[in-house]
Design a protein that fits this description.
Layout: E1 3-8, H1 13-23, E2 31-38, E3 41-48, H2 51-57, E4 68-74, E5 89-90, E6 96-104, H3 107-116, H4 128-137, H5 142-152, E7 155-163, E8 170-175, E9 180-183, E10 188-191, E11 203-206, E12 212-215, E13 220-223, E14 229-230, E15 235-236, H6 252-258, H7 260-268, E16 272-273, E17 276-277, E18 294-299, H8 301-318, E19 322-326, H9 327-330, E20 341-347, H10 353-364, E21 368-373, H11 379-383, E22 386-389, H12 402-421, H13 428-447, H14 452-459, E23 464-469, H15 472-488, E24 491-496, E25 513-517, H16 524-535, E26 540-545, H17 550-555, E27 558-561, H18 571-588
Parallel strand pairs: 18-19, 18-20, 20-21, 21-22, 23-24, 23-25, 25-26, 26-27
Antiparallel strand pairs: 1-4, 1-10, 2-3, 2-4, 5-6, 6-7, 7-8, 8-12, 9-10, 9-11, 11-15, 12-13, 13-14, 16-17
Helix pairs in contact: 3-4, 4-5, 7-12, 7-13, 8-12, 8-15, 12-13, 12-18, 13-18, 14-18, 15-18
Length: about 600
């Protein structure tokens, strides 16, 4: 949610900033702006709407000369999406400009205080208090001004700051919001995501909470909250810029759907050796397993639904009760969590605000925490006792696809790993064969469904879509319905098929589309009865099943197929045709698929 970039070097800064902001468009935004410093003057340009408007207004950056600058894409929280509220914000004396990701919780009291002191506000944002505090505290030393300003702020923030008194220098400050430094040759950068950096450098430093950086063209210095310089490790980003490009696909989402066989292979292959599941990063977890009486999975959005799917494998293999809790609810529920609880925290970005808060709440109650994340150096990864990376590669589309499937793949392997060390796993070699076959099965699911574009043309104008399923099918239905609603804007809901007669069936009417997931043989007869129920009331049923399932094939109006797979591990296969269906329905409806309205990739504020 929001994105920031900063640059200082020998190139013209504005084109670099604009390019970086384009790479961050997927995060979600409704306005954008840049500030460029030339000599001792700061020029700012801001627009409402897309970065294309900013490029046009600045003539692709030519209108703002200078080799040092900062940029921002804003998601409106405090104040409407207007040019006045867009970042960067300028101090009253014109010497300082600031961009900010996050929320300043005590901004109202700070705003009142600053107004009483004579400061003039030009926007409705919480961010503007920051630039005025910096102006107030600056006495010729930016480090001191930043420390004093940070000590007054409550909430989350990643800041980029320039000062006309210090030409050629940018500052970056982090507290509970991601911020990464890019290390170049004769130029240096910061950004809220490595996707904005990899076309320039793959050498990065991950700032931690409470740290800030002083960045010149030839040097990067990092300080703690007390102003003491600290040494930071330089990490290497292992993927290149091509991973953040569309690669010939019309949309990033389609590219990422098609990347899922490779992404799941990258997740699974390094962790299976000689027929065994191996997690070298979890070796210190093993002594704690015999004390685990309960597992709690907590996450938001699709990561939560990944937890719902993974719950079945964990309970079946490990024989430990598993609860799946929305992080936004768990953090306020005074949960019954203690030293006997293993909390599994799932987040693609590792920066999800509610998930971070839930993790901290669980740690405070004595629980051991294990994170499943995709982004190295993220907040969730740094806070958890153990971290497993999905290695999915960059995911640019706002609606997750390979992030979800790789999270479930990790949960499957984790279930096998824990069960093995509890002495409960039987025939591990057969299980690992199943896991290793998942990438091939995903590709088969893609290849088996050439009719999806035609089905999208049939269903794209529906007022509502209902997804039904039982057991693991229901868990997948939840994510299938979410995919449909978030990118096509159609009303879509998932229901446990057995609950239809408890109220939902009242919504079924003539030609109502019902998408029925039928991939669990042990409950096929029950699901079949639900299909007959809705068809008797006029519904049109699109069934997701196996080609060999004659019972379902004979009654459904339309069909999607997956290859045969153990239902305990079917979620990563079942979801793929539903992702493609959502994609093509959205395409038929002319939706902005990679950047759906009102949504952001990384929800870093509550």
């Amino acid at each position: 949610m929001c994105g920031i970039v900063g640059y200082t070097g020998t190139q013209e800064a504005a084109p670099v900033l604009l390019d970086g902001l384009k790479k961050l468009e997927y995060r979600g935004y409704d306005s954008a702006g840049i500030a460029v410093m030339e000599g001792r003057s700061i020029a700012i340009c801001k627009v409402k709407g897309r970065i294309a408007n900013l490029c046009e207004k600045t003539k692709d950056g030519e209108a703002l000369p200078g080799t040092t600058g900062i940029g921002h894409t804003r998601w409106a929280t405090h104040g409407a999406p207007t040019e006045e509220n867009a970042h960067p914000h300028l101090s009253n004396d014109g010497r300082f400009a600031v961009v900010h990701n996050g929320i300043i919780e005590n901004y109202m009291s700070l705003r009142d205080e600053l107004i009483r002191s004579g400061y003039r506000f030009e926007s409705e944002t919480d961010t503007e208090v920051i630039v005025h505090l910096i102006e107030r505290y600056y006495k010729g030393n930016m480090r001191d001004a930043l420390i004093k300003t940070s000590n007054r702020l409550q909430g989350s923030y990643a800041l980029g700051v320039i000062c006309s008194e210090e030409p050629g220098r940018i500052y970056a400050v982090r507290e509970a919001s991601p911020l990464i430094l890019g290390i170049g040759v004769g130029e240096n950068f910061f950004a809220s995501d490595v996707t904005a950096l990899v076309s320039h450098t793959r050498s990065v430093i991950y700032l931690e909470d409470g740290e800030f950086a002083e960045i010149d063209a030839d040097s990067v210095r990092v300080f703690d909250g007390a102003g003491q310089e600290i040494r930071k490790k330089i990490s290497r980003v292992l993927w290149d810029v091509r991973a953040a490009e569309k690669g010939g696909h019309e949309h990033f989402m389609l590219k990422e759907i098609m990347e899922q066989p490779g992404a799941v292979r990258a997740t699974v292959a390094p962790r299976i050796r000689n027929g065994e599941v191996v997690f070298e990063e979890l070796e210190t977890l093993i002594p704690h397993l015999e004390n685990v009486r309960k597992i709690v999975i907590t996450a938001c959005g699709s990561a939560y639904y990944a937890g719902c799917a993974g719950k079945y494998a964990l309970e079946r293999l490990c024989r430990i009760p598993v609860e799946v809790e929305l992080a936004s609810e768990l953090r306020y529920s005074d949960p019954l969590i203690d030293e006997g609880t293993l909390v599994i925290v799932i987040s693609q970005s590792g920066e999800t605000a509610d998930t971070i808060a839930a993790l901290k709440e669980c740690r405070s109650k004595g629980a051991k925490t294990l994170a499943i994340v995709n982004v190295v150096g993220s907040t969730v990864a740094s806070l958890a006792d153990w971290t497993v990376y999905t290695w999915a590669g960059p995911e640019i589309a706002v609606a997750t696809t390979k992030g979800y499937t790789t999270q479930i793949a990790v949960l499957y392997m984790l279930a096998a790993y824990i069960a093995k060390h509890l002495g409960l796993l039987q025939n591990e070699a057969a299980l690992t064969d199943t896991l290793q076959a998942l990438p091939r099965r995903i590709q088969q699911a893609i290849d088996m469904n050439p009719s999806i574009p035609a089905l999208a043309r049939k269903y794209h104008a529906s007022k509502a879509l209902f997804f039904i399923g039982r057991n693991t099918d229901y868990a997948v239905a939840l994510e299938g319905a979410l995919k449909m609603k978030e990118i096509s804007y159609l009303h879509s809901e998932a229901y446990a098929a057995g609950e239809l007669k408890h109220g939902t069936i009242a919504l079924i009417e003539e030609h109502q589309p019902v998408i029925a997931l039928c991939c669990n043989a042990s409950i096929m007869e029950k699901t079949l009865s639900n299909i007959v129920e809705v068809k008797s009331r006029g519904a049109e049923v699109l069934a997701l099943t196996f080609r060999s399932n004659r019972q379902i094939v004979s009654v459904a109006d339309d069909l999607l197929f997956i290859p045969p797979v153990d239902p305990l591990f079917s979620a990563v296969i079942e979801i793929v045709p539903l992702q493609l269906l959502a994609y093509h329905v959205a395409r038929e409806n002319g939706c902005d698929i990679d950047k759906p309205k009102n949504l952001a990739k990384s929800v870093t504020v509550e």
